[in-house]
Amino acid sequence: MCVVCGCSSGAEGAKAHDGDVATNPVTGDLHYGAGSAHVSVPGMSQARAIKLEADVLGANKHLAAHNRAHFAAHGVTAYNLVSSPGSGKTTLLCATIAALQRRAPHLPLAVIEGDQQTSNDADRIRATGTPAIQVNTGKGCHLDAQMVSDAFARLDLHAHGHDHPHAHDHAHDHALLFIENVGNLVCPAMWDLGEAAKVAILSVTEGEDKPIKYPDMFAAATLMVLNKIDLLPYLDFDIPKCIEYALRVNPGIEVLLVSATRGDGMEAWLDWLLQAPVAPEHPHAHEHTHTGVHA
Fold first, then answer.
1. pTM attached to this predicted model
2. Domain 62-294 in this protein, CATH class
């Protein structure tokens, strides 16, 4: 159970502290993020929840900094792909790998796959010829920096850069690591894995209001990929409204419109991936000076 993320089961019948919940006097709606910790855990005070979150996320932040330095030493740029289940992350990733193999055939690639159970997604990646390590989290709802460190050590990419101490100074010597996080638009937002950027993938089948319903994730992301745009003729999805919502929670977010199956927007997506600085030194080093929306 993930206490820090607020999805602890707690004791049946346990009640929240008064400061944990706000009630709308008109509709009766309940908001359990109203306390100072912005989360309610049965039987736990807001102060204790804040302390626990600081301790756990602080330890993870230390490990993430180690990962970031480790990636830099190996000339690796890592991307953390986050989304809800069914957004098309793995399909997009397979299409991305195939496109990169054509466009940059000598670019080393690897994938860390996160799921609660099975190796289905890692098997799909390995079928492309790209090394992949599956990380099953059990009851866990996200990947953390230690999991990524353990998985990275088992990838061939881990050896990349040892023979080239200054590999990160040469674009042709760098490598890309894709981390496909557990399908979840809440918990992974808080967990730094040592990545260059979080990429939020949103399918047009999910509804344009996702950025304001799950603001922490889109606030943490550098890029929002609107996927499955080939389905737009069959859906009632307002792209401008979705982008407006995303910019409301993150004025600096970039947006790409993509169809992984039909190929729309793939070249712009590859451009975005390949323009990034290799192994930035801090979580927000992959910032851009303007907001771009690309079809």
1. 0.84
2. alpha beta
